[in-house]
From TrEMBL:
<comment type="pathway">
    <text>Cofactor biosynthesis; NAD(+) biosynthesis; quinolinate from iminoaspartate: step 1/1.</text>
</comment>
<dbReference type="GO" id="GO:0016740">
    <property type="term" value="F:transferase activity"/>
</dbReference>
<keyword id="KW-0479">Metal-binding</keyword>
<dbReference type="InterPro" id="IPR003473">
    <property type="entry name" value="NadA"/>
</dbReference>
<keyword id="KW-0411">Iron-sulfur</keyword>
<dbReference type="Pfam" id="PF02445">
    <property type="entry name" value="NadA"/>
</dbReference>
<keyword id="KW-0408">Iron</keyword>
<dbReference type="InterPro" id="IPR036094">
    <property type="entry name" value="NadA_sf"/>
</dbReference>
<keyword id="KW-0662">Pyridine nucleotide biosynthesis</keyword>
<keyword id="KW-0808">Transferase</keyword>
<keyword id="KW-0004">4Fe-4S</keyword>
<protein>
    <recommendedName>
        <fullName>Quinolinate synthase</fullName>
        <ecNumber>2.5.1.72</ecNumber>
    </recommendedName>
</protein>
Length: 302
C-alpha cells in the first residue's frame, strides 16, 4: 500500500467505527493528515472533552492517552503504539513525591501533565506548557511545589515573583540538552531570525528567546508573525510542519539533535493496525486512579 492508500483506508475505517484520531504536533506529517485534531498537550486535553466519537486513538505518548481516558471514562481510548512513553513522566514516583511533600509542607503541588496518572492522584492541579503560568497565578496558595520540570517551573516562577516556588530536578532529556551557547550561535548564524522556544528549555535559552510557548503557541506565533525567518527551539517536527504551512518563510532548527524518539515511534501503520484491532493498547486505569488523577486534570481544564 502507498502512503496515500493507507491514509484513505485509515479515514474509511475511522468513519466506519466512529473513532476519532488525536495527534500531538510532534507526530509526522502523514499522521497529522489523518487526524481529527492536532495540537499541544493542552489542546488535546480540551478536545478530548468535546469529542462525540465512541472511541479515540492517541498518536502521542502514554500520559496523553491516559489523560484522554480520564476525561472520557465511558469511551474506549487506545495508545496507537504502546512503546510511546515520555521519559520525563517516569522521573518521579509516588514515594519520591511523598518525600518532597514532607520537605515542603503547606505547598500546593502543581504537576506538569507529563507525569503518570498515579502520580497525579497525589497532586493538587495539573498544568501544561500552555496553561502553567495562568494556573499558577490563579492558585490561592502562594507556595508552589512544581514537578517534575524545573525549566518550565523557573519560566513560570520568573513571571510570578510574588509566589515562592520549590522544584524537582527532572526535565525533558531532549529540550534540557540545548545550551545557552547553542542559542547564541544560532542567533549569530541567522541574525534576522526570531528565536521561538519551548519552556522545557533551560533559562539560559529561554532568556534569549523572542517567544516562549507550547508547541501550538510556537506554530501560531510563527504563522501570524510578519518576520520571515525563525529559529525553532523545540522538537524538529515543528520545523517541518511550519515549513509546510508557511512555504515563503524560513525555519531553522535550534539544534539538529532535538528529536523526541518516543514521539517518533508511532507510525501510520500503527494507526491503521490499531483501527483494525491488531495493534495499539487500550488504556485501562483503576477506579482510584481515574478518580484521583481526574480531579487534578479536570481542575486544569476548568
Ligand atoms: P506541549 O505542551 O507543547 O504539547 O509539550 C508537550 C511536550 O511533551 C513537549 O516536549
Ligand atoms: Fe517527553 Fe521531552 Fe519527548 Fe516531550 S519531547 S514527549 S517532554 S521526552
Amino acid at each position: 500500500m502507498t502512503v496515500a492508500e493507507l491514509q484513505a483506508e485509515i479515514i474509511r475505517l475511522k468513519k466506519e467505527k466512529n473513532i476519532c484520531i488525536l495527534a500531538h504536533a510532534y507526530q509526522g506529517h502523514e499522521i497529522l493528515e489523518v487526524a481529527d485534531y492536532t495540537g499541544d498537550s493542552y489542546g488535546l486535553s480540551v478536545e478530548a472533552t468535546k469529542s462525540h466519537c465512541s472511541g479515540m486513538i492517541m498518536c502521542g505518548v502514554r500520559f496523553m492517552a491516559e489523560t484522554c481516558k480520564i476525561l472520557n471514562p465511558d469511551k474506549r481510548v487506545w495508545l496507537a503504539n504502546p512503546a510511546a512513553g515520555c521519559p520525563m513522566a517516569e522521573q518521579l514516583d509516588v514515594q519520591g513525591l511523598r518525600q518532597l511533600k514532607k520537605k515542603y509542607p503547606g505547598y500546593a503541588v502543581v504537576a506538569y501533565i507529563n507525569t503518570t496518572s498515579e502520580l497525579k492522584t497525589e497532586c493538587d492541579v495539573c498544568v501544561t506548557s500552555a496553561s502553567a503560568l495562568e494556573i499558577c497565578r490563579k492558585l490561592d496558595n502562594d507556595k508552589i511545589l512544581f514537578i517534575p520540570d524545573p525549566n518550565l517551573g523557573h519560566f513560570v516562577a520568573e513571571q510570578l515573583p510574588e509566589k515562592t516556588f520549590a522544584f524537582y530536578d527532572g526535565g525533558c532529556p531532549r529540550h534540557k540538552m540545548i545550551t545557552g551557547q547553542e542559542a547564541e550561535n544560532a542567533k549569530a548564524a541567522h541574525p534576522n531570525a526570531l528565536l521561538l522556544v519551548h519552556p522545557e528549555c533551560c533559562p539560559e535559552v529561554t532568556r534569549q528567546a523572542d517567544y516562549v510557548g507550547s508547541t501550538t503557541g510556537i506554530m501560531a506565533y510563527a504563522e501570524k508573525s510578519d518576520a520571515e525567518e525563525f529559529i525553532i527551539g523545540t522538537e524538529n517536527s515543528i520545523v517541518e510542519h511550519l515549513q509546510f504551512s508557511c512555504p515563503d518563510k524560513k525555519f531553522y532548527p535550534l539544534s539538529v539533535s532535538l528529536t523526541c524518539m518516543d514521539m517518533k515511534v508511532t507510525t501510520l501503520m500503527d494507526v491503521y493496525n490499531c483501527l483494525r484491532g491488531t495493534a495499539g493498547e487500550e488504556i485501562e486505569l483503576s477506579p482510584e486512579v481515574m478518580e484521583g488523577a481526574g480531579r487534578c486534570i479536570r481542575k486544569m481544564v476548568e
